[in-house]
Amino acid sequence: MIRRLIGVLFSGLGSRASVFAMNVVLMHKLPGVEAFGAFSFAMAFITTLPRFVTLGWPVILPRLLAEGQRADDPARCRGAILTSLSVAAIGGIAAAVSLNLLPQSVKESMGGNFTVLLVSLSIPVLAVRRVWFRALIGYGKSAVALFLDNGFVASILAVVFVYAGRVSLNDVYSWHLGLVLLSSVLMATMARQFTHSSRSFKPLIDKTWWSAAIATTWAEGAALLLANISVFTLGVLKLEEQLGLFSAGSRICLALAIFPTLVSTAYESGFAKSMANSNLIEAKSAFKHSMLMSSIIAVPVFVLIATFPSPILYYSCGPEYVSAAAILQILAVGQLVNALTGPVTSFLVCCKLEAVVQRTAALVCIASVFLSYFAIIQHGAIGAAIVASAGIAILNLWRLAAVIVFLQESSDATT
C-alpha cells in the first residue's frame, strides 16, 4: 500500500502540477480577467457534465472489478466495463446535444456558438475516458490513470501555449479536445490488456447494480458541482470579472485539493478488496491511515496559502489577480476540511452506502444553489467563495459522521 501511495503521489503531483502550470499560462496569455472568467465558465460544463451523464457507473466500477477478480470471472469484469462505456457514450452524446440548445445569452458568456460546439464535443469523450480511468484504478494502475487523466493533456497544453502568442478561447478548446481524445485512446489501450483473455462478457442488468450506480452519481459529481455552482451562477449573471477572480482562487486551491484526491485514488482499490472479502478490520485500518496521510500533507500547504495569499496570487497569476486574496483564503478552509476528513466518499461507496452519499450530496447541493445566488448578489465573488467553502466542509463532515456510525455499528455486530 505504501509503495502504491508513493507512486500515486508522484504521478498525481506531476499531473496536478501540469494542470496548475496550464492555468497559470492561460491567466497570462488570455486577454484579461474577463477572458479567464469565460474560460472557467466553459470548463465548469466540461468538468461537471461528464461526471453526471455516466449515471455513477465509473464510481462503482472498481468495486465491480474487485468482485469479478475475486470470483476469477473475467467475463463479469468485461461486462462491467462495457456496460459503463455504453451508459457514458449515450449520456455524453445527449449532454452534448443539450448544451447546444442553451439560451444564446448563456452561449455568449462561454464565448459564442463555435465555442459551445467545441465544448460540447469534449463531453462524450470525457465521459468515456472517465470509465477507462476508473477501470485502470480498479486494476491497480492508479499512477498511470492519474497521469493520463489530466497530466498528459495539461502538460502538452502548457508547453504549446508558453511558446504561442496571445491565444483565443477557441484555440484552447480545440487543443483540449484533440488531446483528451488521444489520452482516452491511450487509457483504453492500457485497460484492455486486463480483459483481452476473455471475449465473452456479462452485461450488468441487475437492478441492484443499476440502483447503486445511479445513487452514486452524486458521489461522482457532488464535489465538482459544489465548486462549480458559484461559477455557473457568476457566469449566468454575466459577472465575468468576479468570475475570473473566483476562478483564480479556485485554481490555486488545486494545490490543496490534490492531496485528498490522490490519497483516495491510492486507497480506493484497497477499500474495495477489503470490503469484498468482508475484512472490516483491514478496511477500518486503511481508512484511518488514509486520513492521517491526507492531513499530514495538506496542513502545511494550507498554512502557506492562508498566510501568503497575495504574494502567491501576484507571482503565479499576475498583479490583476491580487484582489482575489480573501477569496483564496476562504476557499482554502473548505479544502482543508476536505483533506482532514479523508476519502470518505470512496469509503462509503465501497461499503455499499451509496444512499448516504446521494442524500448528503443532494441536500447540500440544493442548499448551495439558493445560497449561492443570494450571496453573489450581495457580496460578489466573496459570497460565492463562502458558500462553496462551507458546502465542501459540511458535506465532508456529514459523510465522516456516517463513516464513524457505520464502523461503530459494524464493530458492535461482530462482537
TrEMBL record:
Annotated localization: Cell membrane
Protein's UniProt name: Polysaccharide biosynthesis protein C-terminal domain-containing protein
InterPro entries referenced in this protein's UniProt entry, alphabetically: Poly_Biosynth_Transport (IPR050833)
Topology within the bilayer: Multi-pass membrane protein
The keyword Protease is assigned to this record: no
Source organism per UniProt: Rhodopirellula bahusiensis
GO cellular component: plasma membrane
Domain of life: Bacteria
Keywords: Cell membrane, Membrane, Transmembrane, Transmembrane helix
Residues passing through the membrane, by range: 37-60, 81-102, 114-132, 144-166, 172-191, 212-237, 249-270, 291-314, 326-349, 356-376, 382-407
